[in-house]
């Protein structure tokens, strides 16, 4: 069990901004799915999972702004797989690397309370710095996670505009002239208002795909005003380029934390090659933001 130090209780948006300024705006994926594990010459079993995860720790810890382990790829191995995930989260945390756990939890009432405590609570076995959550039982259903994250200096990333082809049927749907996605962004903006008043990013982030094209403009969404950290999957193997980020996010670009997984993990299993791939991507993104 990792006991969070004082830094973990500083506002999440502040810590993330500092990490991005230090290491560049990259979130490196830790996705041990079968194809990648086997492409590294590893057996797709618990031993291969552990080797994959700890190689990522060696390559990325202390060297990138953040990492995003995909919980499902560990859970598939049962309790022993979750133990490997916890070991990796602890190692990244000890190195000062921000961990965004991609778990996409979402429920109501006491169940959401339990999810919040499991991933963000002060007594959680291996708490992440932030966790992805799904708002499709209503943004208000996420209140236990949003509030607990605020109290502990952690964060949540709420699914808003995802890049999967099924997403628009729900996220673009409108009620009273406002899309579901816009309502989610406005909810995050309200929760981040205090941080915004200080010129900081808030603790309620948003997941917005880097491949969504003109959706933000089409739906009248002002991401820059939300003060939300924006986790942007889709860079690299999914087709988005650093240049696409500027076109998609516009004025909100300084808030964007692009996520790249397969395009970096393809450099494994060599630790030096993995680290170099992550550094190169981080530097490219930092240069783009500075231009």
UniProtKB/TrEMBL annotation:
GO biological process, one term: 'de novo' UMP biosynthetic process
Protein name, as recorded: Orotidine 5'-phosphate decarboxylase
Cited NCBIfam families: pyrF_sub2
Pathway: Pyrimidine metabolism; UMP biosynthesis via de novo pathway; UMP from orotate: step 2/2
Segments forming domain Orotidine 5'-phosphate decarboxylase: 25-277
Gene transcribed to yield this protein: pyrF
Domain of life of the source: Bacteria
Active site (record annotation): 104
Keywords: Decarboxylase, Lyase, Pyrimidine biosynthesis
Reaction(s) this enzyme catalyzes, per UniProt: orotidine 5'-phosphate + H(+) = UMP + CO2
Signal peptide interval: none
Gene3D superfamilies in the cross-refs: Aldolase class I
SUPFAM superfamilies the record matches: Ribulose-phoshate binding barrel
Membrane-spanning ranges: none
EC number: 4.1.1.23
Species: Phycicoccus elongatus Lp2
Family: Belongs to the OMP decarboxylase family. Type 2 subfamily.
A single GO molecular function term of this UniProt record: orotidine-5'-phosphate decarboxylase activity
Keyword match Lyase: yes
Enzyme class: lyase
InterPro entries: Aldolase_TIM, OMPdecase_AS, OMPdecase_type-2, OMPdeCOase_dom, RibuloseP-bd_barrel
